[in-house]
Amino acid sequence: MEFLKRCPSCGKRFVVKVDREVLVDKEEDTVKRVRDLAMPRAIAGGGSFMPVAALTFEIPIERDTFEVSYECKHCHHQWKETLVVVKKEGAKGKPTSITRA
Q: Taking the complete model, does pTM exceed 0.70, yes or no?
């Protein structure tokens, strides 16, 4: 498989191929996101919103760390790069906590 990368040695494009792709680490974690709920103020407020509550969601994420080995077909230079791929799901589901304002 060829990539649009440049070889760091000779600088040529379209001559880089992937030698190997190895999964180094796989990590599962959660990220907290807070979403505010608001309702319109009275007519005197001029159309602005007043915060009512804050919802806290925990979003599961996966981090995959790969070590990718490349080789240039022109000068045969070899090098490695570390690639981190983050997969996360949307804030679907029920909130974990509700805080009233």
A: no
